[in-house]
Amino acid sequence: MEIGKKIKQYRLKLDLTQEELAQRTELTKGYISQLENDLCSPSIATLEDILHILGVSLQEFFSEPANEQIVFTSDDYFVSKNGGGTNTWLIPNSQVKEMEPIILTLPQGAQCEERLPFEGEEFGYVLQGKVELVTLREKCKLKQGDSFSIDGKKQHTIRNINKGESKVLWVTTPSNF
């Protein structure tokens, strides 16, 4: 791996000169130049200092770029049942990631499966219709354009109180659906 070349790429992305990077890391411009030309190797502590200034973690710096899909179309989605409604999974294999976005679609009067407590949190945004977020202690009515954020430790469910279909963009972190 060409460490110096990667450091230079990150430095240039931030529009920093070698001198500016040297000043921020308390190193010399000559050392930064030698490093970027792979004429010397930094200690782990020095590399961590440089990467901190460049806004890059060690893990990110040493990971190989993956041909990871970042744009998804409706062809990539899949649908599964959720109580009386359906989940449209917006990102395939999102269960292995930190965030799991779905669109919950509920026909009139339907309710999704009760969400059991877990370590994490959930965010929802009502795309269409009216729903009721029900926890053990309260019921909250939400309409199109409203959103909610709830601690995953709270047992809860969502029910459609609209005269017609309702849709909620629902994001769980970490993934838990």
TrEMBL record:
Domain of life: Bacteria
PROSITE patterns in alphabetical order: HTH_CROC1
InterPro entries per UniProt: Cro/C1-type_HTH, Cupin_2, Lambda_DNA-bd_dom_sf, RmlC-like_jellyroll, RmlC_Cupin_sf, TransReg_Diox_bact_type
SMART domains linked: HTH_XRE (SM00530)
Signal peptide: none
Gene3D superfamilies linked to this entry: Jelly Rolls, lambda repressor-like DNA-binding domains
Domain HTH cro/C1-type, residue spans: 7-61
Gene Ontology MF terms: DNA binding; DNA-binding transcription factor activity
Protein keywords: DNA-binding
This protein's GO CC annotations: cytosol
Protein name per its UniProtKB record: Helix-turn-helix domain-containing protein
Taxonomic path: Bacteria, Pseudomonadati, Myxococcota, Myxococcia, Myxococcales
